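hi! just following up on the protien thing from before. the input was this:
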Amino acid sequence: MPAVTPLEAEYREWLVTRLSGYLRRPENDINVCIPFSEYGMDSVAALSLFGDIEDAFGLYLEPTVAWDYPTIEALARFLVRAGKDGEL
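and the predicted 3d structure came back as:
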């Protein structure tokens, strides 16, 4: 498993904060390796999260990204790569 870069750690922290808000759970209850679906996150919540990502980071995500990268860990790694490539 590759090392977590500072940017990936920043994305992870931001995503944990957002997910805990949507789920009304403490941040320390959010595990970055557990799929969003296991937390009960539905497509409406995923679209809201992606809207927040667009607002905060200027990155537009296709709705299917939540299923392609179903954990905070995977999504944060994707955001780092996609930001470097300039493509999402």
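The mean pLDDT is 88.
The chain has one domain: 6-82.
cheers
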